[in-house]
Amino acid sequence: MVNRLIYRMFIAKAPGSITPCRIDHLVEDGDWLPIAGGIQAVHVPGHSEGQLAYFLPGARNVLFAADTCDNLFGLGYSTFYEDYEAGVHSLEKLSTYDFDVACFGHGKSILRGAGEKFGRKFIGHHHHHGGHPRRAAKAAGEEKGRRVHEPEERI
Question: How far is CA 91 from the centre of its chain?
Fold first, then answer.
């Protein structure tokens, strides 16, 4: 309900197009960037077609979720998606990563247990053909979350 109100107040009346900008470097899903010792780009379409989130491995593993969702009034869906189904799929994808901290484009960061909160909120609440990734991993005897491979050379 709050998202619908925010949409009507701010987004519905926005101009229909935005002037594109020049791209200096194309970043794609899985790319490692030389920031903070190495951060991985994760393609998460839905809110917008080229949306990227970023995963920072470390002692607590941090996910920068961008606008895939928000934490304004608790963890929830973004106010607007260009493609809602793609957005849901992207949130399920992010929920399979192993992270403790999540930062958002809108709302407060979650500083503990963020990956588990994502899993409870975004996996299994919509039609999902592939089953429950965490349950499937446990059944296969794998780790609970998706561990990403760090780059061969430290950045």
Answer: 6
- Calculate ∠ Cα 97-49-68, nearest 5°: 40
Q: What is the pLDDT of residues 95-150, one digit of tens each?
A: 999 999 999 999 999 999 999 999 999 997 553 333 333 333 333 334 444 444 44
Angle, helices 114-122 vs 84-95, to 10°: value is: 140
Tokens 């490692």, located at residue: 32
143 burial (CB, 10 Å; 0-12 / 13-18 / 19+) is: exposed
Specify whether the backbone of 66 is left (phi greater than 0), alpha (psi in -120 to 50) or beta. Answer: left
Give the rounded distance of the alpha carbon of 18 from its chain centre: 23
Tokens of 109: 């960061």
Token output for 72: 């304004």
d(CA 59, CA 46): 29
